[in-house]
Amino acid sequence: MSRVRQLWTALAGTLVAVLLLSGCGTQSADGGGTGGGTQAQAPLAKVHLEPGGGSDVNPAAPVKVSVEGGKLDDVALTNGDGKEVEGDLADDGLSWTAGEQLGYGKTYTWSGEATGTDGKSVPVQGSFTTISPAKQVRATVNPTDHSEVGVAMPISVKFDDPVTDKAAAERALKVRTSVPVEGAWAWLSDTQVDWRPKEYWPAGTEVEVDADLYGVHYGEGEYGRSDLTTEFTIGRSQVVKADASTHQMVVERDGKQVASYAASYGKDHDPELNTPNGTYIVMQKNPVEIMDNPRYGYTDVEKKWAVRMSNHGEFIHENEENRANLGKVNTSHGCINLSEADAKSYFDTALVGDPIEVTGAVASMEPRYDVFDWMLDWDQWTQKSAL
């Protein structure tokens, strides 16, 4: 063999060896050629966090984890003190939901793991920080739980500080009734919003109120301190018809007259001393009330069976000292005077929230003394809503 032929034979052998070696490197895990080695597949499972991050998260926002293309194995949400937030992993493993409210001004960290349908693990990880309010504002709601109240009783939510964003606060308030009742919220001041029906409540109505105020921004960095709820019942319908010109006080129950008491109202000739026209409600009941009015020469006067109907100073109460004028002449300083027996008879039947409709006086009550909800007509009332 010539030297040239020997060189070509050797070169051909070398090329075959190189090609064989190259053919072994292109085999992928599934037997297909990749041309460049095996490439790792991305895990199929995708984890979604709410909240996923941030430094001004509202603690009342939804707190949950969900997964696509797999299932959650375990999830934990831990605050800065290492305490885990209570939560529930769904039976299907597709979601986890927090079972308690988060706190203001705290940092929370997600941890856990999910497994995709491809068998690969994906971490649950991340962190976020909740807002730190300039102030947490406390609120209260009335009527209180399990109360039985009269058919004119408003629902009242009062705040410790003035509310700037009234619309935000009002949107957080919900009223549910056992029968359809038309009603509306009205802001009576910067710190009080009331709900009342358009007409008196139907007797026997069951009422539930949810005030989801935690996390609500009232403006100027102030937030709701906590949620509020109450459940109460409307009692029988009892209305006092107090016509000062008749010198009688009539009580109607469920649409029928059940009593008529001889009464003495405020002095007719003096607008400062008469019992002003308007629709009041029973605010409070006291077996004995201490009456004071130094301007008219009396202090520490005890009167029995006193039913407060206004913070302006009007009551229904006994006044035996004025017995001679009961049913005949109006001589009080604005209260409705009854005999002791009649005052107790009425006292025993009255519920907080019962309406007292005063007519026949020379002046009307200004709508500024609690409780003045029914001193406003429906158009005036609805105009006081922030929504």
From TrEMBL:
The source's superkingdom equals Bacteria
Signal peptide extent: 1-29
Q: In which pathway does it act?
A: Cell wall biogenesis; peptidoglycan biosynthesis
Q: What is the protein named? A: Ig-like domain-containing protein
Active site per UniProt = 317 (proton donor/acceptor), 335 (nucleophile)
Q: Which PROSITE patterns match?
A: LD_TPASE, PROKAR_LIPOPROTEIN
Name the CDD domains on file: LDT_IgD_like_2 (cd13432), YkuD_like (cd16913)
Keywords attached to this entry? Acyltransferase, Cell shape, Cell wall biogenesis/degradation, Peptidoglycan synthesis, Signal, Transferase
What residue intervals traverse the membrane? Answer: none
Query: Could you tell me which residue ranges the L,D-TPase catalytic domain spans?
Result: 238-359
